[in-house]
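All the exercises in this workshop are built on plain-text protein records. An example says more than a description, so a record of this kind follows:
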Amino acid sequence: MVGFSPRKSALTIYGIFDAYASEPDPLIEALGPATTGKSCVYIKQLDQIDRGVLEQLVRNAWSSAAPV
């Protein structure tokens, strides 16, 4: 449902951002210094983001995912 990839330039998180959503997710803005791609969020420094917001984004992604 959600994937994490530690890369040299940034921690990449897949599945918590939908670039095609009709409304932007306010939690992405509340996350802190991060950038987004088509379906991923890039975090350069984990200690600069709000971990509670990150947890909520992961929970939201998990609860909205279709059952496997």
About this structure: The first helix runs from residue 26 to 31. Residues 3-64 form one domain. Strands lie at 3-6, 11-14, 34-36, 40-43. Residues 19 and 62 are 17 Å apart (CA to CA).
